[in-house]
Design a protein that fits this description.
alpha+beta, Beta-Lactamase, 5-stranded antiparallel β-sheet, 4 helices, 5 strands, 19% strand, globular
Length: 160
């Protein structure tokens, strides 16, 4: 099943950004970002100026999809956590609530144990935020950003 596009409201975005900002400090990480399963960057914090975050987000989603395929072959639901160790940088990838991907890039100034500890807490917070967001979007009568657009408005837009 294809994941529908996520609707994000400013309040929830700010909550997510606060979690990401705090995780950079608490885990002593270089970069933390959140990606949806389609590869769209949701939030980022840390030293992102010299990173191609768009490519990293897309590749991370592809990595999750590939390991999801391996998990199915092994009759697992998912591999929720991944770790890649390099000479200068390490990447910890965590699937949060089967909705989004939390990525932490860190170096020798931090440790995998610290990152895992902080990611566990951040994942719980993020899961609560995304659950609340899902409920908010699914509430009948909830304010949709598209509620005031009528079929006539759409017809007029394309009849210029």
């Amino acid at each position: 099943m294809v994941n529908p596009q996520m609707v994000m409201y400013e309040e929830e975005f700010n909550q997510i950004q606060n979690v990401v900002d705090r995780l950079v400090k608490d885990a002593n990480a270089k970069v933390v970002f959140i990606v949806d399963k389609n590869g769209q960057l949701i939030a980022a914090s840390g030293d992102v100026d010299n990173l191609d975050t768009t490519s990293l987000a897309s590749l991370t989603a592809g990595n999750i999809a590939a390991t999801g395929g391996m998990a199915k072959l092994l009759k697992e639901n998912e591999f929720a956590t991944q770790f890649h160790e390099g000479e200068k940088a390490n990447i910890h990838i965590q699937l949060v609530g089967n909705r989004v991907i939390l990525v932490v890039i860190f170096d020798s100034k931090s440790s995998l144990g610290l990152v895992r500890l902080r990611v566990r807490k951040a994942s719980e917070e993020l899961n609560h935020i995304f659950e609340a967001l899902l409920k908010k979007v699914q509430e009948p009568g909830a304010d949709s950003p598209f509620a005031e657009i009528t079929d006539e408005d759409i017809d007029n837009l394309f009849n210029d």
